Amino acid sequence: MSSTTDPRAADGTRRRRRGPRTWLATLPLLAFTGLCFGIPLGAMAYGAVTRTDPASGATRVTGEHLARSLQGPYLDSLIGSVQLSALTALVGGVLGVVIAQAVVTSRSAGLRSAALTASGVLANFGGVPLAFAFIATVGISGVVTRLADLTDLGWNLYSFTGLTVVYLYFLIPLMVLVIAPALDGLRPQWREAAQNSGATGRQFWRHVGLPVLAPSLLGGFVLLFGTAFAAHATAAALVGGSVPLVTLKIADALSGNVLTGQENVALALGLDMILIAGLVMAVYLPLQRRSARWLR
Amino acid sequence: MLSSSARRGAAVLLSAAVLTTLSACGAAPDPKSGGADGAKNGVQPGAATSVADFGSLEALAAAAQKEGELNVIALPPDWANYGEIIKAFEAKYKIKVNSENPDASSSDEIAAVKSRKGQKRAPDVLDLGIAFARSGAAENLFAPYKVTAWDKIPAAQKDADGRWTNDYGGYVSIGCDAARITTCPQTFADLLKPEYKGKVALNGNPTKSGSAFGGVYAAALANKGSFADIQPGIDFFGQLKKSGNFIPVESTPATVEKGETPISIDWDYLNAGYADQFKGKGVDWKVAVPTDGVYAQYYSQAVNKDAPHPAAARLWLEFLYGPEGQNLWLKGYARPVLLPGMTQDGTADQAAVAKLPQVQGTPAFPASEELDKAKAILAEKWDKALS
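ok -> structure tokens follow
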């Protein structure tokens, strides 16, 4: 993006100098990105579109892996992953904002630091330990399940709903962590100004609060979506193959004891995942750029 | 300024470091230049196809000891008694066994062979699921080697060229916690009873785990299916899921001990092992091989064609297929491939045989094409049936 089209340059005070020297400083980052993301991505893309004949060792370009990754159980798993991620990101995002707003506006500094620290810990509590914590509490013979007769109420941890609840356990704290600084950025003066002009609380949120927060909310949603989309260990330990998820399918195809010669389909599925993540980012980035300046 | 001697010291250190690095990730010794390690008749260890190429077992052991090390992969110490097997081999031949990634899968093993071709860290020997043994042989990754006991192994359980040989296996069995379940199920048909609601588990996802796949195959046989037709097995689990009996959580020692998977379909050697493991922990684990769906599956042993320690790899095979190795597997409740012969000539460990779950008849094995077809159908249909 050139500086002439940069919206932030319009006010004249934030114009950035983009000389060759600033370029130099980003070189380590670019080298790191190229090495740690570029090479695996290249290898994945290459594997997704080629096929090596086991007998002769000859490699040829083919679209069959990508085609297979978009049909049958593989397509189901992609759809299942998108559904689960979108649902958990939405619910987690909304609940996270509500909790964060409560924490940010409360006058107790103790509550604030406790909530944020707990969020930091919980947001990173995932994988197999989390799955087992849930199995022990609300699994079929879990402590809470038996005390509260959850099974009679139709509760089943090993289902789409169960998985959603487990995911929310680490997604809500993540949202609190991400959104709290943005909520802090909502100046009290704006609210006072709105009130002085006769706006109701609802009108303030509708015309000032939410538009200003929109990019951060969307950013939070994208982050949550991505986290849920890429999660694997928790789901693997909990539901095995009974909720179709793309990460589980990739694991099946890539490292299993049953299916042979599926590695390239796994790579194609990885490529599909990157495409979906890219699409989500493509929605988020322009919006974020448009209104990020309010929260400086 | 450095003094000249310090500089020289640094140079020596540096070159030593370079040399170590080079040799650490350098190529394996070229089998053709191995000269002194070579076997009789000018055959090199890497090309030896039987102990005769070395002259004698002692000569093979000597060549292996010269190499001094053996790289193994994907051998969990608590699986089929591999922990004790490795210790026994190390003690007997004074060869160091480097055990890498014990929980790896068969495809991880094949990937390690391919990606570390020519390196010293490449695995020497592989313990593979049958599908990977066959595909690996087709890709020409294995060295043909016929162990001394070769003739006693049934033809259906070995590659005609000796590129892989079945080593040990077991039957699909139903493990059941008698402390929590009043009447333990004995057959697949039993599993459908309403009293087992929310209690039946597999030990993995059958598109990934070999034992779970075996469970579905056995269920197919129990429901008028055949080796060529796995669909009835998939339908059976779909029915179990609908009735609420099936829980998709993958049973592990942890879920068994916790009581989350009170009924678990798994290999009989793992289930029998659990029974020992959980004695006195509030779990009374009983094992039954279902009479309506008898399915046995064996793992296969193969030697990496580019093994960095070719003689040690061959010695490992001779050890595994000798009475000592076979009995050690037996001790871990696995059924070694030579068990029928050993029971007849009395070399089998009688106490260990008596502890195995009872099975009638001899196992049959699906042909390659049948297995491939079953897998393709399973990969296609399993998710739908279970969701």
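Residues 4-25 of chain B form the longest helix (22 residues).
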